[in-house]
Structure formats: structure tokens, C-alpha cells
Amino acid sequence: MKIIAGASLLCLFALNSSAQKLQSGADSLSYALGQDIARSIKSIGVPINATIVSESLTKALQGEEGLFGEQEVQQIIRQQLMAAQEAKAAVFKEKSNRFFEDNKKNDGVVVDSSGIQYLVLQPGTGEQPTKEDEVTVHYIGKLIDGSTFDNSYDRGEPITFGLDGVIPGWQIALPLMKKGAKYRFFIPYDLAYGERGSGAIPPFSTLIFDIELLNITPKES
After folding, report:
1. What is the mean pLDDT of residues 35-40?
2. Helix runs in 128-197, H state only
3. How far, in Å, CA of 169 to CA of 207, rounded?
4. CA-to-CA distance for 146 and 205, rounded, in angstroms?
5. pLDDT tens per residue across span 130-168
6. What are the sequence ranges of the domains in the chain?
7. Catalytic residues
8. Cα separation of 13 and 16, whole Å?
9. Cα–Cα dist 138/184, whole Å
């Protein structure tokens, strides 16, 4: 289906009262830029005063001198974003600490000196891997809200990897297991994907893994 510029575009804008005011390509661009700026601001995750933003933007576009010089602008943005990040980190750390404090009270939970906690779902009888070995495992990865972010069982095949190439939590966890064992590990964010997260894993996430150790292959020299 072809979309014809001009009249057809304006028909789309007629769907709501704000859009009915758009009479030209420049108007459409202005509205679109407003949406884009708002999306960028919201992605930062810091509360702002929309009225002040609008006032500052209007004055800047009209060529009026702002309250702050360029260096001050960058300094304020940097300082406020850092403060917001630190506040967010404090909330996540408290949530993580509370989770582990409550979790260690559950029956069967073992607390490792690293901060990892685990449950033995099925004991193994074989050898234990070292950080220099390759292992083959099945696993399910979840967040503490119960949502699953990865599942090798669903893919229908286990994975094989060197223990020296995975997150620190796994490097600590797998050597605790014997071949044939299945454990549930509770891994704090600082031994997982840290303050940035990864893909479907949000920043500061405590991770829960059910891991089944299928095989151990000593890594070749």
C-alpha cells in the first residue's frame, strides 16, 4: 500500500485534536521531534518538569540566552544522572539483600561464602569440574519475579562451554556440583550481569538458575 505524502499524511493526523493543528510538513516534523525528545527523556528514567523543559526549549530555539553555559549544562546533566543512578542502585541493592536474607531461611538452602545460595535438587555421583574444564549442562534461568529469560530444555539441547568464559556466579557454582547433579542457584547481581544487565536481564538482577550437570570435559592444554 502506497502512502502519499501531504494530504494522506494529514488525514492520519486528523485522528485526534492535537494532530488536527498540523497543517504542514514543518508542523509534522515539529510534533515528531517533540515525541522523540520525550521518548529520550523518559528513557533516562529521571523525573523532570515538563513545563520547564518546554520553556527552556522554546527560548533556545528562539536564540535567547539560557540560564546555563554549555559546560554547566553538561555538568548538571552528568551530576543529576549519576545521582539518579546511585539512588536506583541503592533501591536494587536493598531489594537484593532482602531477597537473600529471606531466602536463606528456607529449608535446604545453603549459603556459600561468595554470596551465592543454592538448593540441591538432585545429588550427583561423578567428578566435580574445575574452572579450567568444559561442561555440558541443561539449565533454566529466571528472575526473582518468576519470569524465565532462558531455558535450554525448551531449545531441546544442552550447551557446552568452558567455565572460564561465563559469568563469575557460574564459575563459582558449577565446581560445587558433581556430574549428574541438579542444583538451584541464587546468584546476586554482582556475580551475574552487574549494573548494566544483558538482553532480557535488567540491571542489578538477582538470577535463579536450575542447572543440571551432564558432562565434564577436561580442557586441553
Report:
1. 88
2. 152-155, 168-173
3. 9
4. 12
5. 989 999 999 999 999 999 999 999 999 999 999 989 999
6. 7-64, 102-217
7. 139, 149-150, 167, 193, 209
8. 7
9. 12
Q: Give 45-88 pLDDT, tens digit per residue.
A: 788 888 998 899 898 888 888 889 889 999 998 898 888 888 88
* CATH number corresponding to 102-217: 3.10.50.40
For residue 14, is pLDDT > 70? no
Beta partners for 117?
111, 186
- Sign (positive or negative) of CA dihedral 118, 214, 149, 85: positive
Strand locations in the chain, DSSP E? 110-111, 117-122, 134-143, 148-151, 159-162, 182-187, 207-217
- Return the amino acid letter for 176: L
User: How far is it, in rounded angstroms, from Cα 183 to Cα 112?
Assistant: 13
Cα-flanking dihedrals φ and ψ of residue 9, to 5°? -65, -40
Q: Quick one: cell of 68?
A: 546555563
Report the alpha-carbon angle 149-150-155, nearest 5.
145
Cell 542502585 belongs to 89
Amino acid letter, 36: D
C-alpha grid cell for residue 156? Answer: 531441546
What would the grid cell of residue 42 be?
A: 523518559
pTM: predicted TM-score of the whole model, two decimal places: 0.69
pLDDT at 7: 40
